[in-house]
Each structure stands twice: as structure tokens, then as C-alpha cells.
Amino acid sequence: SKDDIALRFSVTDTGIGIPAKSMDKIFEGFTQASNDTTRKYGGTGLGLTITKELIELQGGEISVTSKVNEGSSFIFWLKFKKDMSQVPTPTEGEVDETAEFPLEKVKVLLVEDNLFNQMLAAKILENWHCDVDLAENGVIATEKAERNAYDLILMDIQLPEMDGYQATQYIRKRVAGDKGRVPIIAMTAHAFAEEIEKCRKYGMDDYISKPFDENKLFGKIVKVLKSRERKTVEEPVPGLNGSIVTEKKKLIDLTYLQRISNGDADFVHKMIQVFVNLVPSFIESMDQCMEANDVACLRNILHKIKPSVAFLGIAELNFAIVEMENNMDEHSPGEIIAFCNKIKELCLAAINELKLKTPT
Questions:
Q1: What pTM was computed for the model?
Q2: In terms of Cα–Cα distance, which of 284, 339, 343 is closest to 308?
Q3: pLDDT given at position 215
Q4: Which helix (H) or strand (E) holds 5?
Q5: Residue 99, φ and ψ in degrees, nearest 5
Q6: Do residues 159 and 111 make contact, with C-beta atoms less than 8 angstroms apart?
Q7: Within 13 Å of residue 250, how many CA atoms lie on the same side as its CB?
Q8: Mean pLDDT for each 10-residue chunk of the chain (360 residues)?
Q9: DSSP string across 62-122
Q10: Do residues 149 and 296 lie in contact, with contact meaning Cβ atoms separated by under 8 Å?
Q11: pLDDT number for residue 89
Q12: What gap in Å lies between CA 278 and CA 109, rounded to an integer?
């Protein structure tokens, strides 16, 4: 009708089926199709009774069709009121977000070793008029990321020679300038919580599960590109004296800290000052550990400062610390010293970027 809409739902299984003589009784409480069903399959015989009552209470109907040893289909209808208040009414000049942010000429590096997946993803991107470049493994991806300026990288996780995590970490740590900060969306077949966290840890901006929905992919691309645009514009950053320093962000992203502060500028100010006070003693402790060649102590010190670095959104510094923690046992003493010096430089650069001075 004009005000209502009826939806049909169907649930089908491939189980033992229901004999014709039992069809009239299966919706009765504590009744099952055969005497040994409970013994074999468990249950109390109340599920269909409750389901029928809930559907009928909402003005709907339920029915069943079945064949023994083939399975059953349960079909029910429910009526819903049409709510036109939730349907947006376009106004003159109003356009969809996808139209506001066309992907035409967006340069994308697609890193995928599976030919089928490669062709599919490339076709979708080309339909959006993206400029698509291909890399068949992580090594090629890092080489291309160093040579070319991309707007986005779609990075498969499972890659030969160098996996997606390693390739992303290389780009974030060793590719200079804007090329090293290119947005990276991971493509993964296993979107478990651990893998999602690992994507974030290694510097990926987002992830999408394979096989992916092209509308979802479009939305994620738009999101990361817009987010990266916002990070490159001049933004006000609170200084220690409460003043606002306008600068172009390079190392630090205070988005997370500002979000959890719920608009409390004093809290943000205090958290920044904690970091500033922490850095001199952190650097001194690092130097002492290096002089004593105490790897265990150095790992412990790095672990302690890592939460502060993460809260302040100092991604490059966080990646350096993670790299050091994970690979310290494999590095030579000279490499460890070089890593530590890099970490110290990043700490001091972060403070200078915020226009902060260490309190005396």
C-alpha cells in the first residue's frame, strides 16, 4: 500500500527434512518431527513456537515447505511502515559525496600478485578513471614508491619476496617526503582483529577485506584521501603557554589525543608537557644503554615511551621504535646506534614542530 511495505524472508536448510504427517505439528510447543530428533540433534522444541508467535504478534505469517532428506524452507512475511522522513530530499545544487570527490586522475599503485585479483581491482579503479600502476610483489612496490609520486597505494598483505607489512614499513621509514606518507589501504583475506591492529601498527591508513565490495572500497579511498588532505593544511596546534601555533603538520597528528580529551584543551596541553618532560631523560637513558651495550635495558626504555608517542600521533617515531624492538637482536651494534640516533632526532624534531621548549 501507499503507507506500508511487505517483506518476504526465506530461510532454507539442507537437513533431514520434515515428513508430511508432521508438518501440521512442528509449530506446537515441545513437538519435533520425529521421536529421535532430540536425541540426535538436541533442542527443546520451543524455537519454532516462539518464532511463530513473534511473527504473528507483528501481523505477519509463517509457512514451511520440506522434503525428507533434502531440507526445509521457512518463509515468513512482515509488514513495515514506510518512513519517508529518513529519505534525504536533494536540494538544488546538492550532490552526492562521491560526485564531490571524483577519483579521476587519482594515481594508484595496485600491489597484487594474483593475476585474477589484479585484473579485477584494476578494472574497478579504471572504471573510476583512476591512473593505475601495477606491482606484483612488495619489492617492486617499494621501488616504484621511491621513484613515483602516488596519491594512494592498495597493498595486498600476502605477497612474494616482501609481504605487504614489510613493504609498508619500508615506505614509511625509508621513502622520503610526501612519497613516504602516501595513503595505504591494505587488502586482506583475513580481517581478524589481530590483523587489523597489525595493519595500523605498520602504518597502513585503512584496510578492506577480499573479495571486496566496490562501493565500500570507493568510500574508503575517498575517506583516506580526504583525511590526508586535512593533515597537510595548516592547523592550529596548542603550545605549552596555551597559545595557538599555526603550522603545517609533518610528524605529529593530535587527532586521537584531541578526540579523547573531548574538547579539554588543558588536558591536551598537559599531555604534551608530559611528553616534553619525558624526552630528555629518555634520551639520556638511551645513551647510557648504548654505552653499556645493554640491549635488554634499551628495549625496556623504548617500550616505556611508546604509549606517549602513540597518543601524540608521531607515526614515524612509532614505526622506528617498533622496528628497533622487533629486530634489535638481529642488528649489529653499529646499526643499533644508528637507529637510536634516528629516534633521538625524531623526538627532538617532534618537540620543535609543536613549538615547545623543554621546561627548565
A1: 0.43
A2: 343
A3: 86
A4: strand 4-12
A5: -75, -30
A6: yes
A7: 14
A8: 81 85 74 52 61 84 88 88 53 42 86 90 91 95 94 94 92 87 90 80 89 86 79 47 47 78 80 85 88 86 83 81 78 80 86 57
A9: EEEEEETTTEEEEEEEEEEE--GGGS----TT---HHHHS--TT-EEEEE---HHHHHHHH
A10: no
A11: 43
A12: 39
* Beta-bridge partners for 188: 209
Q: Which three cell numbers stand for residue 24?
A: 501440521
Rounded Cα–Cα distance for residues 326 and 95 (Å): 48
How far, in whole angstroms, is CA 93 from its chain's centroid? 33
Quickly tell me which residue has 606491482 as its cell: 135
Helix spans in the chain (H): 37-41, 47-57, 97-100, 115-127, 138-147, 164-174, 177-180, 193-201, 214-232, 255-261, 265-292, 295-311, 315-327, 333-353
Pairing mode, strands 152-156 and 61-67: unpaired
**Rounded distance between C-alpha atoms, residue 289 and residue 301, angstroms:** 9
What DSSP string runs through 172-208? HHHS-HHHHT--EEEEES---HHHHHHHHHTT-SEEE
Instruction: Give the Cα separation of 296 and 311 in Å (integer).
Output: 24
* C-alpha dihedral (188, 190, 196, 202), degrees to nearest 10: -50
> Does a cis peptide bond (omega within 30 degrees of 0) precede residue 90?
no
Of 147, 161, 180, nearest to 113 by C-alpha is: 161
Contacts of 91 (CB under 8 A, 6+ apart): none
Cα distances from 143 to residues 65, 119, 146, in angstroms, run 60, 21, 5
pLDDT of residue 151: 93
Measure the CA–CA gap between 253 and 317, rounded to whole angstroms.
12
How high is the pLDDT of residue 93? 39
Q: Are strands 206-209 and 234-238 parallel, antiparallel or unpaired?
A: unpaired
